[in-house]
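hey
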């Protein structure tokens, strides 16, 4: 019965929890496939010979096997509820596995009173009380699957970070990389392909180190798909070929077809059309094989239906006497349905008109907002340009005017010093000279500091890299810059705005995050620039941030919104901070 439910969790690795008994598990572990055999085995068991926990496992297997035969999902769900009612609240392990089966049953019964996430939250608490990290990580991965299915990617990332912390606490290296593999999936769903690729590379190193060819096979396939979405077709072909070399010998026909289709696409994108066409022909042959098997299955199904129809014909003959009454009832129902359809049509027509009016109002408001934002952005551009001009003027005056005057004064003073004959006068000359030198040096430094900026450098990327290098030299924070696609310079005012935003966010990390590492990712797409700044610091409670907290995040968010972009903070206390900015180009 778990086939449909497992579709939601394709990205989650299989989790096998060790059982405390072997014989019962050996008998009923495969009840998904051998339903009648499972029921026959259960009939031979004396439940008194087993512990309470083992008895519950046997009853769960019995109910699931019965569902596999009669497909009566509500009956199966109700049987599980009865087991849960009879379970001792202190028997946490039995309760966990009953809830686990209820989670799967949720997908088959629409009238389930307790929701999917409610059951998972209960199991999280049980696993924590049992101090069982395997059960706890499993629960977090289930909730992650549900959140991704509903496109709630930020919440899914929070669940994964919590699972990762548990795995780190108990030194479960394999689980850590399982979680990071799921993080890569989340980043792919969000379109953050560079971040997804970083995790895929880490996972590739891990599987290579432990020589896990099955893990490497899946990793190479996933990495190839990321490169395909990035339109790096050479890498797409390279990783698809690597995956083909490690493909297991026992692949089923559907997975074999998918592998060949991937390789055919990779050859096609790399202009190797002959190899591509040969593989596509092979794929079509395999599909024909599947269709032939399905046709044979349909023929058997039709024969079974024919035998059933003969039986139903005899039953129908006995029910002929009631047909007249049934026709009257059907006529009444048809009339009622017709009236309902007319009423529904009228209601939908009125609702569509109302929605159209509301849509027009929203369009007018959006146009007004766009005009206001454009005006505000123009004001900000003018303000930034004015500030840069003022800085240049101040720097020029400091360097050309005051700097020149101080230099002249210094020359005259040195002449006076050489002419001074008395030792006492020389001491005063030395002190005064030192003050002049200090003043001159401060003015020179101010001049250079005011004059340097994004516009005075060779572009955005060199300026950001220079800033990162200066911060890293302090040995307190290591800043790494990763950029992709920024081959040309942007508009001067936009480069300046982006540089100031990055500079302010790095200042926040230094002042508040207590981080040792920070990453700046800049990725240029066709229509927007993605900026992602991550740190491994103490994190923060995003909900409690106020505009007056002093970190300038509210001001940065407003600047980004004025460009038509988006600003998102992803952070939890103890899990670092990730800030994602998208600015249209």
């Amino acid at each position: 019965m778990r086939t449909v439910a497992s579709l939601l969790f394709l990205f989650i690795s299989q989790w096998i929890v060790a059982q405390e008994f072997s014989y019962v598990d050996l008998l009923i572990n495969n009840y998904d496939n051998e339903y009648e055999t499972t029921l026959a085995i259960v009939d031979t068991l004396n439940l008194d010979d087993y512990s309470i926990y083992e008895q519950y496992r046997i009853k769960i297997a019995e109910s699931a096997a019965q569902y596999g035969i009669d497909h009566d999902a509500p009956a199966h769900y109700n049987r599980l509820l009865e087991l849960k009612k009879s379970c001792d609240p202190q028997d946490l392990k039995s309760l966990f596995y009953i809830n686990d089966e209820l989670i799967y049953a949720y997908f088959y019964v629409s009238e389930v009173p307790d929701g999917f996430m409610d059951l998972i939250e209960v199991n999280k608490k049980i696993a924590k009380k049992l101090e069982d990290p395997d059960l706890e990580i499993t629960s977090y991965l289930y909730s992650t699957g549900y959140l991704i299915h509903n496109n709630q990617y930020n919440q899914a990332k929070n669940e994964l970070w919590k699972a990762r912390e548990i795995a780190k606490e108990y030194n479960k290296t394999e689980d850590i990389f399982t979680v990071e593999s799921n993080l890569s999936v989340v980043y792919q769903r969000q379109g953050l392909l560079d971040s997804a690729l970083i995790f895929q590379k880490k996972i590739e190193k891990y599987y290579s180190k432990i020589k896990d060819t099955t893990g490497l096979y899946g990793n190479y396939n996933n990495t190839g798909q990321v490169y395909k979405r990035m339109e790096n077709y050479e890498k797409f072909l390279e990783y698809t070929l690597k995956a083909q070399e490690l493909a297991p010998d026992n692949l089923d026909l559907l997975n074999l077809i998918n592998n060949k289709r991937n390789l055919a696409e990779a050859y096609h994108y790399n202009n190797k059309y002959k190899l591509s066409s040969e593989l596509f022909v092979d794929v079509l042959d395999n599909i024909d094989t599947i269709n032939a098997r399905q046709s044979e299955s349909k023929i058997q199904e039709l024969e079974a239906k024919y035998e059933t129809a003969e039986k139903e014909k005899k039953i129908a003959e006995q029910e002929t006497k009631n047909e007249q009454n049934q026709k009257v009832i059907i006529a009444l129902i048809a009339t009622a349905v017709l009236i309902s359809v007319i009423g529904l049509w009228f209601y939908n027509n009125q609702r569509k008109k109302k929605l159209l009016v509301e849509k027009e109002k929203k369009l007018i408001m959006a146009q007004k907002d766009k005009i206001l934002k454009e005006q505000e952005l123009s004001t900000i551009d003018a303000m930034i340009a004015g500030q840069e001009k003022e800085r240049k003027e101040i720097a020029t005056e400091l360097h050309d005017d005051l700097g020149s005057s101080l230099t002249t004064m210094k020359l005259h003073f040195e002449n006076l010093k050489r002419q001074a004959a008395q030792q006492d006068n020389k001491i005063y000359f030395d002190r005064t000279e030192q003050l002049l030198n200090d003043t001159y040096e401060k003015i020179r430094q101010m001049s250079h500091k005011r004059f340097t900026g994004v516009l005075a450098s060779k572009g955005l990327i060199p300026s950001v890299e220079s800033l990162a290098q200066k911060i890293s030299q302090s040995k307190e924070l290591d800043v790494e810059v990763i950029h992709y696609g920024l081959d040309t310079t942007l508009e001067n005012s936009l480069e300046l705005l982006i540089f100031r935003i990055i500079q302010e966010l790095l200042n926040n990390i230094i002042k508040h995050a207590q981080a040792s590492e920070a990453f700046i990712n800049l990725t240029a797409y066709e229509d927007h620039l993605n900026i992602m700044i991550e740190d491994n610091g103490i994190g923060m409670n995003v909900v409690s941030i106020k505009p007056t907290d002093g970190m300038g995040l509210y001001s940065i968010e407003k600047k980004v919104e004025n460009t038509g972009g988006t600003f998102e903070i992803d952070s939890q206390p103890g899990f670092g901070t990730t800030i994602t900015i998208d600015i249209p180009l």
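Residues 460-584 form a domain with the Heat Shock Protein 90 fold (CATH 3.30.565.10). The chain has three domains: 2-210, 325-451, 460-584.
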